[in-house]
Amino acid sequence: MKAFDYHQAVDSEQAVAQAVRVSGAEDMAKYLGGGTNLVDLMRETVERPDALIDVTALSHAIDETPEGGLLIGAATTNAELAGDIRVRTRYPMLSRAILTGASAQIRNMATVGGNLLQRTRCAYFYDMATHCNKREPGAGCDAHEGFHRYHAILGTSSSCMATHPSDMAVALAALEARIHLRGPDGDRQLPLTELHREPGERPDIETELRPQELIVAIELPRLPMAARSGYRKVRDRASYAFALVSVASMVALDGGTIQDVRLALGGVGTKPWRAYRAEEALRGQPATEATLVTAVDAELAAAKTLPDNAFKVELARRTMIAELSRRIADARSGGDA
Amino acid sequence: MQWTINGQVRKAEVDFRTSLLDLLREQFQLSGTKEGCNQGACGACTVLVDGDRINACLALAVQYQGRSITTVEGLATDTHLHPVQAAFIEHDGFQCGYCTPGQLCSAVGMIGELERDQPSAVTADLSANEIEWNRDELRERMSGNLCRCGAYNGITDAIAASLATEVVR
C-alpha cells in the first residue's frame, strides 16, 4: 500500500476544505467511509491516494423531511439504515436490498455514501497483471476473452462490461432517491439514477461527481406504494455473494390496470439499472402475464451478451416476471397501498 | 494514538497503513484475532467495536482511535468462559479452531443484534418490531464467517443453545 496522509473531518464543510487543501496538480485526496472497499483497493494498489479524509464522523441522522420522506446522513452505516423501522415499513425494498448485500460485519462498517461509490468487483479490475480499461483507459479489457460470468449485459461498451456491485443503489434507483452533494463550488443535488455513468470510452470515470465533491445525504421521497415494495436477489450461494440478477420492484393497481410501477435491476448493469423501458410498457396496461412478458422483453432487447453471461437474459426475464407477479398479487390482496 | 482494548487503555504510534488486525496482533501481541483472507471475505478477524462486530482486516487502526475494542481474549473473565465459548466446546463448534475467535466474536455481536430486534435478509416480516430467531436466521446472520473444516452444524447448535439459555450478555 502506498503511504498516505490521514485527516479526520468533523463536518462536511471541513471535509471539503481538507480535500481541496490536500489536492494539488499531482496529489489526490479520497474520502474514507467504512473502508471496506477502498482499503482493499489500496492494498492491491488499484487505488493510490495521497491523502484520506475520514468522513465517518459526519451525520448518521435519519430525519423526516417536510414532504414526508426521509433524509439520510451519508455516514449512516448500512446496518443502521437497513435496521431503521421507518425504512423497514415505508421502504422495505431498501432494507431488504441492503440486508442481502455483504456480511453483517461489513454492513456495520460500510457507510451509505461509500456504498454508492464502491468500485466494481470485476476480477480483472483488481488484478494489476491484467489489462483493464477502467484502471487504465486504452489498455484493453481481458474480461472479454476471459471469465465474464458475473459481467453486465446492459449499459456495456466495447471498453468495459464491469457490473455495478451495489444492492442498495438498485433499491435507491427504484425509489427515486436524490443525492445531496457538497463541493468547493457549493451544494447541489442529483437523482440517484444520474449519479453513475455508463462506461462508454471512459470506464475510469464512473460518476458525475466533480473534483472534491462529497455525498452528504440521500433523500428518499414520499412514495406510499413503496410500502409494498420488494427486492429479490439471485446468486450462486444463498448468502454473502454478489448478485447474478436482482430485482427491485413496486406496483400500484387501479382495478385490473397497472397504475404505476417502479422497476430496477442489479447484477446485469454497468450502473444501478432503472428499467425505464419496462416501466413505460407496464403503466396503464392490464395487469396480465402477457403485459409483463412484453415489458420485460422490451427492457432486455438491448442486452449484449458474451458466452459466459448470456444466461443472465433469461434469468433476468424470469426473475422480473416472478417479482412483478408477486407485487401485483400483493396489491390485489392488500387494497390501496 | 490510543484505543481501549478489552477494557484497558492501550497506546501506540503506528503507520496510517496499519490495519486494526495488525495493530492487535503485532503491537499488542493479541494473537487470538486471526488473519484469514485479509480482504473481508472470511470473518476470521472479526472483533467487536463498541459491541458491534466488524472485520479488523479492513479497518485502519487510525480510524478506530478512542473506541472500545473487544477481542476473543476479552470475552472470558478470569474464572469463567463466556457462555458462547462454553457452548462452542459443548457442541463441537470447531475442528481446527482457526476461524473460532472470529466465530465467537461474531456470534456475540450477532446476539446483540437479535436483542435489538435487527432484521436479516431472511426475516419474513421486516416491519415486525420483535424479531424471532430460528436456525435459518442464525445461518444467514453468521454467513460472514467461513469455516474450512465445515463445523457449521456445531456452530449453529452452540449459538442456538446460547440463545435458548438466555444467560448470554
Write the layout of secondary structure elements.
The complex is a heterodimer of chains A (337) and B (169).
Chain A: E1 5-8, H1 12-22, E2 29-32, H2 38-43, E3 51-54, E4 62-64, E5 70-73, H3 78-83, H4 85-90, H5 92-99, H6 104-109, H7 112-117, H8 123-126, H9 168-174, E6 178-183, E7 186-191, E8 214-220, E9 230-234, E10 245-254, E11 257-266, E12 273-274, H10 276-282, H11 289-300, H12 311-334
Parallel strand pairs in A: 1-3, 2-3
Antiparallel strand pairs in A: 4-5, 5-8, 6-7, 6-8, 9-10, 10-11, 11-12
Helix pairs in contact in A: 5-9, 10-11, 11-12
Chain B: E1 2-5, E2 8-11, H1 20-27, E3 46-49, E4 52-55, E5 68-70, H2 83-90, H3 100-115, H4 135-141, H5 152-165
Parallel strand pairs in B: 1-5
Antiparallel strand pairs in B: 1-2, 3-4, 3-5
Helix pairs in contact in B: 2-5
Summarize the structure.
Chain A has 337 residues and is α+β, with helices and mostly antiparallel strands. Chain A has helices spanning 12-22, 38-43, 78-83, 85-90, 92-99, 104-109, 112-117, 123-126, 168-174, 276-282, 289-300, 311-334, and strands at residues 5-8, 29-32, 51-54, 62-64, 70-73, 178-183, 186-191, 214-220, 230-234, 245-254, 257-266, 273-274.
- Principal-axis shape of chain B equals globular
Report strand order across the widest sheet of chain A. Answer: 4-5-8-6-7
CATH homologous superfamily of the domain at 230-334 in chain A - what is it? CO dehydrogenase flavoprotein, C-terminal domain
Can you give the mean pLDDT of chain B?
96
Radius of gyration of chain A: 20 Å
Describe this structure in words.
The complex is a heterodimer of chains A (337) and B (169). By secondary structure, chain A is an alpha+beta fold. Among the domains of chain A are: 5-56, 2-Layer Sandwich (Uridine Diphospho-n-acetylenolpyruvylglucosamine Reductase, domain 2); 230-334, Enolase-like, domain 1, CATH 3.30.390. Chain A is 31% helix and 19% strand. Chain A has twelve helices and twelve strands. In chain A, helix 5 (92-99) packs antiparallel against helix 9. Chain A starts with a strand and ends with a helix. Chain B has 169 residues and is of the alpha+beta class. Chain B has a five-stranded mixed sheet with strand order 2-1-5-3-4, covered by helices on one side. The A-B interface holds A 1, 3-6, 32, 34-36, 39-40, 43, 52, 54, 56, 79, 82-83, 85, 88-89, 92, 95-96, 99-100, 102-106, 108-109, 238-240 and B 15-17, 19, 38-40, 43, 46, 52-55, 58-60, 62-63, 106, 109-110, 113, 116, 118-121, 123, 126-127, 129, 139-141, 143-145.
